[in-house]
Design brief:
- The strands form two sheets. Strands 1-4-5-9-8-7-6 form a seven-stranded mixed β-sheet, sandwiched between helices. A two-stranded antiparallel sheet has the order 2-3.
- It has two domains: about 90 residues; about 230 residues, Bira Bifunctional Protein, Domain 2 (BirA Bifunctional Protein, domain 2).
- Strand 6 and strand 7 form a beta hairpin.
- The longest helix has about 40 residues.
- It has eleven helices and nine strands.
- Bound molecules: 3,4-dihydroxyphenylalanine (DAH).
- The site of 3,4-dihydroxyphenylalanine has 11 residues, from strand 8 and strand 9.
C-alpha cells in the first residue's frame, strides 16, 4: 500500500512540475487531493490494515498529502503573480483617451415657462390644483355646460372641439376652465388656485395656433373679490413675468363663464408693435382671458353669490413663451428640433 501511495505521489509531483497555469494547478488538486481524488480512495483501504500498519501508512499518507498541498500552494502563488502581472500589462488603460460625450438633457422651454408662471402665482398665494381635478379627457358637462356655455355655442362644434368616440359628450378638453368646476365642487371658498395643463382644439395649424397647447387656469373665490383684485393680480403677474417695460393692454371681451370679461394683449416682440406675420399684422398678441366668475357658474356649484364673488383667468403658455423669448412660430415648440431647444 505504501508503494501505491509512493507511485501516486510521484505522478502528482511530476504533474506539478509540468503545470504551467493556475488552471493546471486547480486540476491537479482536484485529481489527487479532492474528496473523490486518488489519495482518498486509497486511504479508504486503511481500515483493512493491522493497527501497526494503519499508524505508519496513515502517517505516511498524511505526510505526502501535506507535501503535495505545500507544493501546489507554492506553484499557485508563483503563477498568480505571473498571470496578474501579465494581465495588468495587457489591460492597461490609456488615461489620455478622451471620455465619451454625454449630452446634457434640458427642461423643455414650455415646462420652464410653466414653472416660472406657477412660481409667480404661488408667491401671490395661489396653490396648484391636484391633477385629478383637471383631466384632459373631459365631459361636455365640465368643458361647457357648467361653464355656462350655451348648447348652440360655436365652440361646441366639431370644427372647434375634438369629440371622442368613447361615449357621446366626451371631449378632449378645449380649455382648462373645467378645472374651476371640479375644484368648486370639491372645495368651499375661500378658493385661490391655479391649474396648468394641456388643451386641444380642432384648429388649422399656423404660426400662432396649434391643435394642442397649454394653459394655466386661475380661480380666486372669496368674500368681496372685485375686478380691481383681478387687475391687480394680473398686472403684478405681467410685471414679474415680462418686467415693467413691456406694453400691455386690458381689452373688454366676452366669455360665457365671466361677467364682465376681458382679455390681456402684450405687444408683439417680433415687430415691436408694427405688425408682422406672428401677430397677423395687429402688433399685439392675446395672452389671456379673464373676468369675474359669472353668477350662473357660482350658483351651479352651490356657492352663495350673496356672500361670495370671484375672478378667473386662463392664459396661453406658448404665447407667453413666444413673447418672452421672441419665438416667431408656435410649431417650433413641438418639432423637437435640438437646434431650437438647445437655446433655452
Ligand atoms: N378658457 C378661455 C379660453 O380658452 C380663457 C379664459 C377666459 C379662462 C376667461 C378664464 C376666464 O378662466 O375667466 O379662451
Amino acid at each position: 500500500m505504501k508503494t501505491l501511495l509512493e507511485n501516486i505521489y510521484n505522478s502528482a509531483k511530476a504533474d506539478i512540475d509540468n503545470a504551467l497555469t493556475i488552471a493546471d494547478i486547480d486540476e491537479i488538486r482536484l485529481k489527487y487531493l479532492s474528496r473523490k481524488g486518488e489519495f482518498n480512495s486509497i486511504k479508504k483501504g486503511l481500515k483493512d490494515l493491522s493497527d501497526e500498519d494503519k499508524r505508519t501508512v496513515g502517517a505516511f499518507a498524511n505526510q505526502i498529502t501535506e507535501d503535495l498541498e505545500q507544493m501546489l500552494k507554492l506553484k499557485h502563488e508563483q503563477f498568480y503573480q505571473k498571470e496578474m502581472t501579465e494581465r495588468l500589462q495587457k489591460d492597461r488603460i490609456d488615461i489620455t483617451l478622451p471620455g465619451k460625450f454625454v449630452p446634457m438633457g434640458k427642461i423643455h422651454p414650455l415646462t420652464q415657462t410653466t414653472n416660472e408662471i406657477v412660481k409667480i402665482f404661488q408667491n401671490l398665494g395661489f396653490s396648484i390644483v391636484d391633477s385629478s381635478l383637471s383631466p384632459e379627457v373631459e365631459t361636455e358637462y365640465y368643458n361647457f355646460d357648467m361653464l355656462n356655455v350655451p348648447k348652440d355655442h360655436p365652440a361646441r362644434d366639431v370644427q372647434d372641439t375634438f369629440y371622442l368616440s368613447l361615449a357621446s359628450n366626451v371631449v378632449l378638453r378645449s380649455q382648462t376652465s373645467g378645472a374651476q368646476i371640479h375644484v368648486m365642487e370639491n372645495q368651499k371658498p375661500p378658493i385661490k388656485v391655479i391649474s396648468p395643463g394641456r388643451v386641444y382644439r380642432n384648429e388649422n395649424v399656423n404660426a400662432r395656433k396649434n391643435n394642442f397647447f397649454h394653459q394655466i387656469e386661475g380661480l380666486y373665490v372669496d368674500k368681496d373679490i372685485t375686478f380691481g383684485d383681478l387687475k391687480g393680480v394680473l398686472n403684478e403677474f405681467i410685471r414679474q413675468y415680462f418686467g415693467s417695460s413691456r406694453p400691455t393692454r386690458f381689452r373688454s371681451s366676452f366669455f360665457p363663464f365671466t361677467e364682465p370679461s376681458a382679455e390681456v394683449d402684450v405687444q408683439c416682440i417680433m415687430c415691436q408693435g408694427k405688425g408682422c406675420r406672428t401677430c397677423s399684422g395687429t402688433g399685439w398678441l392675446e395672452v389671456l382671458g379673464c373676468g369675474m366668475v359669472d353668477v350662473n357658474v357660482l350658483k351651479g356649484v352651490g356657492i352663495d353669490t350673496d356672500v361670495y364673488s370671484g375672478f378667473a383667468f386662463g392664459m396661453g403658455v406658448e404665447r407667453l413663451a413666444m413673447l418672452k423669448y421672441a419665438v416667431d412660430d408656435i410649431r417650433l415648440f413641438f418639432n423637437n428640433d435640438n437646434r431650437f431647444l438647445k437655446q433655452f
